[in-house]
From TrEMBL:
<keyword id="KW-0998">Cell outer membrane</keyword>
<dbReference type="InterPro" id="IPR036942">
    <property type="entry name" value="Beta-barrel_TonB_sf"/>
</dbReference>
<keyword id="KW-0813">Transport</keyword>
<dbReference type="Pfam" id="PF07715">
    <property type="entry name" value="Plug"/>
</dbReference>
<keyword id="KW-0798">TonB box</keyword>
<feature type="domain" description="TonB-dependent receptor-like beta-barrel">
    <location>
        <begin position="258"/>
        <end position="596"/>
    </location>
</feature>
<feature type="domain" description="TonB-dependent receptor plug">
    <location>
        <begin position="44"/>
        <end position="151"/>
    </location>
</feature>
<keyword id="KW-1134">Transmembrane beta strand</keyword>
<keyword id="KW-0812">Transmembrane</keyword>
<dbReference type="Pfam" id="PF00593">
    <property type="entry name" value="TonB_dep_Rec_b-barrel"/>
</dbReference>
<keyword id="KW-0675">Receptor</keyword>
<keyword id="KW-0472">Membrane</keyword>
<dbReference type="InterPro" id="IPR039426">
    <property type="entry name" value="TonB-dep_rcpt-like"/>
</dbReference>
<dbReference type="GO" id="GO:0015344">
    <property type="term" value="F:siderophore uptake transmembrane transporter activity"/>
</dbReference>
<dbReference type="GO" id="GO:0044718">
    <property type="term" value="P:siderophore transmembrane transport"/>
</dbReference>
<protein>
    <recommendedName>
        <fullName>TonB-dependent receptor</fullName>
    </recommendedName>
</protein>
<dbReference type="InterPro" id="IPR000531">
    <property type="entry name" value="Beta-barrel_TonB"/>
</dbReference>
Amino acid sequence: MKLTLLPLTFGALGLIGLSSDTFASQRQGDNIESLTVTGTRLQQNQLQTSTSMSRAEIERINPQDTLDLLKQIPNLLISTDGVAGRSHIAIRGGESNFTLVMIDGVTVNDPTNSSGGGFDFSQLDPAVIERIDVYRGGTSAIYGGEAVSGVIHFITRQSAGNSLSVEAGSDKQQRGNLTLSTQSNQDLSALLSLSANQQQSSDFAEIQHQQALLKLGADTKNSEHQLLLSASSTDRLAFAEDSGGEILAFPREAERRDSKHALASWLSQFDSSDTLKWTSRISWTRTEEQTDNPGIAPGVIDGIPASMIESDYRKLDGEIYLNWQLSDSWSVLGGASGKKATGENRGTLDFGFPMPVNFRLEQENYSAFMETSKRLDDLTLELGLRFDAPKDFDNELSSRLNLAWQLNQQTQLHASYSEGYKLPSFFALAHPLVGNPELKPELSENSEIGIRVQGQSGYSVQMNLFYNKFEDLVDFDAELFTNVNRSEVHTSGVEWRGSGQLNEWLSASLDFAYLDIDVKDTDSHLRRRPKWSGGIQLNAQLDNLSITLSADSRGEFYDSSVPTGEILMNGYTEVALAARWHLSDNLSLSLNLDNLLDKDFEQSVGFVDPGRQARAGIRYRL
């Protein structure tokens, strides 16, 4: 196995870090915390941790987009089909649609497209994000379907002051954001954020994005209320997925995709007493997409016909739950939720004649769930159960069990087991050509053991061993020319994270992961899943100047395209530099150099990274 130098270096440093006071638990150093927000609804859960990135760290990194931001979070595998192409994310070997994506507690996955339930991260501008929580492991017992391998939760900003920022750079990069916020007597708050950005790296790669977000809050002595409204649109031009990109694509025509996303959510929390709190939420989301695909000529794999497709997904859901603190060591939560969704697909495939591929599907699901956490001296036990009754499918019961043992003030051991399920996507069920209404839900079993050490001098080290089993995965059967349940995949591996303060002005952090994947009864491989991956980050704070140097590295991996079939791709290391100079309390300048070493590499077959890119910007607090 060919490995890049960086993962091997991580391994050596990892052995040193376990016995030194140098490293802590996340790549973002002292700006990343281990939180218990995303993996559970319990208020004081002490077991499962989620990596969290704060607003301060987001501003320090100053990412191009949200995908660029996610690359800085440890043990997430992020890849794209070029500057404006589709994105792919994997947590512990799972597919992109095995990751539940939420914005302020609202699920935003789209099951109508061919990816089977992923999320277009370009619809969310980094300027509106206050914090990101990432949980690794199945949480269907907490959040239901889609949360098979992990959760990415974006919490939007609520109180941000007033600011104006503009930025420009190579490849016709332009970005701008206006944020206005106000707060009245600490009871009423309002925030408005307007963002726009664009980039064109070639005649075949261009993206434009706009987003408007409004957030209103009202707090009383015993209650909190929040209204969130968001609307965004993204227009992009890029070679189609599996086309072979700018190197191999034929015909030499790019796919055009125009999409819109809207979200409305109302959240209320009431404190009935010092020990009893109840929460309710109702939300509505809509995702629309228009795709004009020129098709892909046959290669090693059969070609793909040209198509013009419009999709429309609408979802209304709500939940209510009670959180009861029975004692300082025992809490119980119980609630119910419901969801009604409608997906439509309209368009044609070009087989020499226009073949309609229209479908419409409705889906309902009603659920009941409970969680409890009990602390017994140095042991803490957490249990989660969820009952789902999806329409036209069998009922599902998901469970989750966590156990933690606090060995001493610095060291904690933990173990967890969870079960998950995911309903087949609207595309897999209802597409006129390849859809199969008899598909069963995809199932998972997830287990994990780990250790976390928090040193007295501020360092922290965390290591996790995990094993996942995915069954009844939906796959396309070329002979039957339809989707079927048949695949079984086992994934296992280790994740290590650590960071710490080297001196008064410099902190270092690094992470690495090893992933082993066993696809049963086939010689094929899962795409874009390297065995080795990792990252390193150095943060320097010099008076009014902050500098961040980061590297994201991965070993060789398998990928596939129509022109090539399945091939083994070279690993790569991507280095980036971010700097911000605070001229005053209100004025700052920023400079970003992406792909600092100007390396040529491909994240997907034929899609070559655009090389070194430079951006410079200015931000003024009004």
